[in-house]
Write a structure and sequence with these properties.
single chain, about 210 residues, mainly alpha, two-stranded antiparallel sheet, 6 helices
């Protein structure tokens, strides 16, 4: 039987290239955990938006992060239940605005005749201002300064609800992201606490029989 002798190293004894390889590999584990969490959270966002009145699919929600100027979250939607959005707004900080709208003349006519949608207007970024609410008015609605005023107020309220939800969802993702250890943190941890042995290329030595 041929016997070979190989030299094994502690983390702090390795060259920088091998050390970086080990740290990046272990940080990727945390990144994979975040991606799984984010996928589940997007699924939660879809259901939340449906409950609010935005009939979206998972692919309608986009985000980028975290720490750059253009980062953020937004969603598009082709089917908005205006009455449901108003009911949500009334319970989440906009009670006075909703009550005021409901007392406006022609309010019911506008609700029945105006459809709101959300379209992406900027493709380079996906932050909350990269989309725009648009509305289509049924031809049966006789437009007057009063109906136009109600439309504008509805638009502003739906837009505020949309922005609030984008901020809430993005904050949830960002908080989870912040739990991922930085490269420097992991490097320091391995330098101080890692008791594994490695080959010179950074591959961990596994003793026969070790799981």
């Amino acid at each position: 039987m041929e016997t070979r002798t190989v030299k094994l190293y502690k983390f702090y004894e390795l060259n920088k290239k091998a050390q970086h390889k080990i740290v990046l590999k272990n940080r990727a584990i945390f990144l994979n955990d975040f991606n799984r969490f984010a996928d589940n959270l997007i699924g939660f966002f879809v259901q939340k938006l449906k409950n609010v009145g935005f009939d979206v699919k998972q692919e309608d929600i986009n985000y980028s992060g975290f720490g750059n100027q253009g980062d953020g979250l937004s969603f598009t939607c082709d089917n908005i239940n205006t009455a449901a959005v108003l009911a949500y707004a009334e319970k989440h900080g906009y009670e006075k605005e909703v009550h005021y709208l409901c007392t406006m003349p022609r309010f019911d006519d506008v609700i029945a005749s105006v459809d709101f949608i959300i379209r992406r207007t900027i493709n380079r970024y996906v932050h909350k201002y990269s989309v725009l609410i648009q509305y289509n008015t049924n031809e049966t609605l006789l437009e007057t300064p009063q109906t136009n005023y109600v439309e504008d107020k509805l638009y502003a309220l739906i837009e505020q609800v949309r922005i609030d939800l984008c901020d809430t969802f993005y904050d949830m993702l960002e908080q989870q992201w912040k739990k991922i250890p930085s490269f420097n943190y992991l490097f320091d941890w391995f330098s101080t606490n890692d008791n594994n042995l490695y080959f010179a290329n950074g591959h961990r030595w596994i003793e026969v029989g070790e799981d």
